[in-house]
Automatic annotation (TrEMBL):
Protein name, as recorded: HD-like signal output (HDOD) domain, no enzymatic activity
PANTHER family associated with the record: PTHR33525, RIBONUCLEASE Y (PTHR33525:SF3)
Annotated InterPro entries: HDOD, RNase_Y/CdgJ
Chain ranges of the HDOD domain: 17-209
PROSITE patterns (UniProt xref): HDOD
């Protein structure tokens, strides 16, 4: 049973929705199994040609410097490791949600990868949230924008143009042109896909999350991590119109909510861009 009764209405009004990332979800389920067998994982990966092909390319890339050509999915999994495979599966499902792929889609994709990497770093250093859960939340919390682009790419380009020029906030412009803002659409889609409820809730509330502090501390913490990750990306211009190195992380709502030590935040920010580039390079290999 759905927690948010308006989700069905949103789903019905947004036209054709991306298919559920079934293979990616299967891979995630297997990776949670303490009795996991590589053979079972390889069989699941092989169900998706895009994931298996990218996996083999990554395993044979210069980054892993293998002496012999990797020709099997199970061997490729051993080479790249479970964490990279998990990220690869979710990244492929995110790309697969796009009906087309151009500059706008690339900007959204890089923003999602950047947010995911930052969320993983932040969650691992200053919270008790599972870094993998934070990565997944960062990767998918703007999936609503993808749905809007798929519904009317030219109209969403106009949304971005208006927001980038400072003539209105992104969410207000979205509501004006699409009736819903991206966090509502994204939460509705993730709920439709049966994602973990905490990720659905964090996606829904990531712009305004103070109300969750007492009601749902885990979702509140995830939202705070997302808020910090957003400014990490903004600082370097990842998924944005341009970089903003004047971004003050000490005043970020997430930083304040988590009472984060600014020495730790600055240290993570210094390391973030190289981590993002490494991750992006892996996924483009």
């Amino acid at each position: 049973m759905r927690n948010f009764t308006d989700f069905d209405t949103i789903v019905k009004n947004m036209g054709d929705l991306p298919p559920s990332p079934i293979v990616a979800q299967k891979i995630l389920d297997l990776l949670r199994d303490p009795d996991l067998r590589i053979k079972d994982l390889a069989n699941a990966v092989s169900l998706d040609p895009a994931i298996s092909a990218r996996l083999l390319r990554m395993a044979n890339s210069a980054f892993y410097d293998q002496q012999k050509q990797i020709n099997s999915v199970d061997r490729a999994i051993i080479v790249i490791g479970e964490d990279v495979l998990k990220n690869l599966a979710m990244e492929c499902s995110l790309r697969g949600a796009h009906k087309t792929y151009g500059l706008l889609e690339r900007r959204l994709w890089e923003g999602s990868i950047g947010s995911a990497v930052a969320c993983r770093m932040i969650a691992g250093r200053i919270t008790d949230i599972d870094p993998s859960e934070a990565y997944l939340c960062g990767l998918q919390h703007h999936i609503g924008k993808v749905v809007m682009v798929n519904r009317d790419k030219d109209l969403y380009k106009e949304v971005m143009r208006i927001a980038d020029s400072g003539l209105g906030s992104l969410r207000d412009v979205e509501r004006g042109l699409f009736a819903y803002s991206h966090e509502l659409v994204g939460a509705a889609l993730l709920d439709y896909w049966d994602y973990p409820k905490v990720i659905v809730k964090a996606t829904l509330h990531h712009h305004e999350f103070e109300s969750l502090r007492e009601k749902d501390p885990e979702a509140f913490t995830l939202c705070a991590v997302l808020a910090m990750a957003s400014d990490f990306c903004r600082f370097y211009g990842i998924g944005c119109a341009g970089s903003d190195d004047e971004t003050d992380l000490s005043m970020n709502r997430g930083t304040l909510a988590l009472e984060a030590n600014m020495m730790v935040v600055d240290e993570m920010l210094d390391k973030f861009y190289s981590e993002f580039v490494k991750e992006r390079t892996l996924f483009l290999s």
